[in-house]
# Entry
Amino acid sequence: MQKIIILNSGKCSWGRCVFCGWGKHDFEVDSKELIKTFNENVDDKVTSLKIFGSGSFLDEKQFPIKFLKHAARVMKDRELIIESRPEYVTREKLGLFKGVKLIVAIGLEAADDAVLRKLRKGMTLKKFNKACKLIHEYEFKVKGYILVNPPFNYKGLLQKSVKHGLKHCDELVLINTYPHAKAELFNYWIKSEWKPINKEEFNEATEKYNDDKRIKLDFDNYSFEPRFEKQERLTGVGRKYLVHPYFTVWQDYFTRFYKRPADKTIILFLPCSKRKPYYKSRTHKTIRRMISGFPFYNKLHIVVISNPGVIPVEFSGKYPFNNYDWNERKETESIKDEYLRVTEERVINYLKAQKYEHYLSYFKPDSESGIALKNACRKLRIKLIDLCSKDVYEKEKDKRNPLIQRGMLEALRIKVKVFSGMLK
# Structure
């Protein structure tokens, strides 16, 4: 039986790689606790064990010698896969694992010293090659990690890295480069200096290696969505608060990485609300209550349109969607024009990426978000069903929260009932 365990101990002694967030974590080092956790996870049924940490397994400041000896003793005659930087691959450390079927995984990342310097890897190809040679001298195996789509990429880098890796490693893993929240790389995405690639792009880049048994492909190496370290409130009106880098990153995520819930086949576009998250606002609660009794409700995917862009409601509790404000009263004509242009483009991008069976909307007739949505659907030749009654709205528009006035809600109920009948 193969097993994977994560041991949180110490921190990466280097911790400066541009692309890595794990190396920024710092945990208490406790040999007794490490041995206890190890023993709880490893029994006689485990034939192969892979240990993940936030640095180097062979760094005794992170994993004390006492624990290394214990792990080696327990795993004798069994496969043990560990990770380490090359500087900790020494005769002393490797000698501890005599009798173990040891595999040492090392991050090669890119087979180019100039790129490694820019990535701040703190390693050269010479040091990598030396570590691999020493591991093989002890008749252990080497697994090399190579980044697909790293920053500072150039044409032919991946092919060059794979060729070098296969020369020195027994196995390679091509890993999709993801922007960890604590990694400097995430800021590259925010500044539009680099962007991650989605699964289709990853598959295209690695297609030629599909049939090589020495190479494994790893697109989903961890659960990923944007997480921002700095979380100030984004309050204001104008271009800065329309195309803010945080909003731009999320919109890129929604169009290239996010997949709508499989059971949500009907989309309902709604306006934002002053209260955040949106689903706690009186407007959203009232609208949901009005339509929740219809048979199609469980298939409904609520998506909000606001100055941050197109926001699936399940993300409305995440930053910055839960911490911004845009005052429509401060809009100028030029701001309105830019809002329409930017929002229309965002809606188009979202609807090209996410397909639904039916498209509904409920906005005030003069809402820029609603107008941008209609323009986008017209260009995409999507049939959009407007649930807002213009005639009734004219009677209610001067009241507070006109969309949830009694007359508007009754008109909404009638339109939703008609739509529900269409589905039978």
User: Anything to note?
Assistant: The domain at 234-422 is CATH 3.40.50.10630 (Rossmann fold).
